[in-house]
Amino acid sequence: MPTKKIVKKEDKIVEKKEVAKKGTYFYAVGRRKTAIARVKIFPSDIAQNTLVINEKKFEEYFPVSRWRDLAKAPLALAGEGAKFSVEAKVYGGGISAQADAVKLGIARALVLFDKELKKALKGEKYLTRDPREVERKKFGLKKARKAPQWAKR
Predict the structure, then answer these.
(1) CATH topology for 26-123?
(2) For the segment 72-115, what is each residue's pLDDT rounded down to a tens digit?
(3) How many CB atoms lie within 10 A of CB 47?
(4) What does the alpha-carbon distance between residue 21 and residue 145 come to, in Å, rounded to a whole number?
(5) Are 40 and 88 in contact (CB under 8 A)?
(6) Distance CA 10, CA 20 (A)
(7) How far is CA 67 from CA 61, 119, 150, in A?
(8) Rounded mean pLDDT of the chain?
(9) Are the beta carbons of 72 and 81 closer than 8 angstroms?
(10) Angular region, 103: left φ>0, alpha ψ -120 to 50, beta rest
(11) What distance in Å separates the CA atoms of residue 150 and residue 137, rounded to the nearest whole number?
């Protein structure tokens, strides 16, 4: 059964959770379009550097290197890649949006782990949620903005 420790850090409450088998982790949520990623990072002294997404290996879940690089970018920037194990549950959206959601979740969890990383991550725009979403289709139109061909007669 997980135990929770509520740690107060300068007027900000941070949840630090303990799990029996893996120890302390930091939890954050990342979103992009309709994709949602729930990310846990486990700091460890032993260089595990494992990334697991939906209980699959990282390389198996993101077969394209561009998606892998995008998702791992905050860890590379922080220089802490060898010190963390990452677990993520991702659902919704497409694979590219899921990679972006994982990126945001990892970045937010790293800030909970170490407040000093916030400036570097924010400078690279890893802490900014991309607000663009699909515009809804309007009645009388074929798509969100595409109108049927206009005929004079």
Answers:
(1) Ribosomal Protein S5; domain 2 (3.30.230)
(2) 999 988 876 558 889 999 999 999 999 999 999 999 999 998 89
(3) 10
(4) 52
(5) yes
(6) 28
(7) 10, 24, 42
(8) 86
(9) yes
(10) alpha
(11) 19
